[in-house]
Design brief:
Length: about 100
């Protein structure tokens, strides 16, 4: 019985050792696959993010150009209106008799 028990224990040890080595190999293979997939996914994300950033830059540049054009146009309109108002003011001042504003 003792011999059989020792033999069984030896077999169990061998099987356990073999199973552990197999598990270790499989785990290493799985980890390598995970690393490859993660690296690939990260590269894909980086490409997508770069594309998104390029689009954002283009849109921002376009928006800034539009704002600049609108601001220039608004400033030109203000200048015209101010000139018209100043002309009206000059005309009205010329219509006021001399000395009317003095007491």
């Amino acid at each position: 019985l003792k011999k059989n028990l020792n033999l069984d224990m030896e077999d169990l040890k061998k099987n356990l050792k073999s199973d552990m080595e197999d598990l270790k190999k499989n785990l290493n293979l799985d980890m390598k696959d995970l690393k490859k997939n993660l690296k690939s996914d990260m590269e894909d994300l980086k490409k997508i993010l770069n594309l998104d950033m390029e689009d954002l830059k283009k849109n921002l540049k376009s928006d800034m150009e539009d704002l600049k054009k609108n601001l220039i146009s608004d400033m030109e309109d203000l200048k015209k209106n101010l000139n018209l108002d100043m002309e009206d003011l000059k005309k009205n001042l010329n219509l006021v008799p001399h000395g009317q504003f003095t007491r």
